[in-house]
Amino acid sequence: MTSPQAAGISVLPVFGVGEVAANSDLAAILQTALVSQGTPLQDGDILVVTQKIVSKAEGCLVKLDDVQPSELANQWASLWDKDARVVELVLRHSRRIVRMDRGIIISETFHGLVCANAGIDLSNVGGERATLLPVDPDASAERLRAALSAANGGARIGVIITDTHGRAWRQGQINLAIGVAGVEALRHFEGQTDPTGYELRVTQLATADELASAAELVMGKVDRVPAALVRGLERALGEGSARELVRPAANDMFR
Prior knowledge:
This protein is α+β, with helices and mostly antiparallel strands. It folds into two domains: 9-60 and 134-247, CATH 3.30.1330.100; 61-131, CofE-like domain (CofE-like fold). Helix content is 25%, strand content 25%. The chain has six helices and twelve strands. It has helices spanning 26-36, 51-57, 71-80, 84-92, 137-151, 207-219; strands spanning 10-13, 46-50, 61-63, 94-101, 104-109, 114-116, 129-131, 158-167, 170-181, 187-188, 204-205, 227-231. It has a five-stranded mixed β-sheet with strand order 1-12-2-8-9. Strands 4-5-6 form a three-stranded antiparallel β-sheet. The chain has a two-stranded antiparallel sheet with strand order 3-7. Strand 8 and strand 9 (170-181) form a beta hairpin. It is globular. 37% of the residues are buried.
């Protein structure tokens, strides 16, 4: 009797991306890095990239000296020893404030993401600057996917753009998918039966989020590795968008 052959995936760091400047051709930069390390994209591959390099390439940067804080931003910053300019950016880029407490602002972005500080980030930028989230992360992912596919002979690939989020009720942060192209965001199991015959009713696996977190394991936060290549999971390719991962307000028991 033969044992079933185990299937597996590889998650490989992409080295050599370097510093990404505003208005850079990010697809060309990634293509060069992938080819240089001997892992050119091929059918079935999924490329995971951080929001930071996408935002930099798209010019989603703000000089803090250009930000004029409001009275609310100044009051909050003074109360909790924060930079009023950063607080102002968070307020400007929030659709609504979910919670302001103990120096922490949890807000809903205009993308529908609920996260700390509306995704405003000062890390890995340098100088008195902050990065904003891409205006449309799904569209950004699709542009990268199309350009990289064309550069590799029309290879069928997927792209995921990630950001680091905290989690209610859990310590630590993980990478989540905020932009998806060519990859299923959710894998649906509703209506299927488990091995005992039980019919699954609401089971959905957040494929894109799981891939985002897997990629973080080889990228790190301080290693200057802003991209990872996932190989061996061709079944995850398909139509999908990060918007599918945002729970509708009508189904959210915590709003």
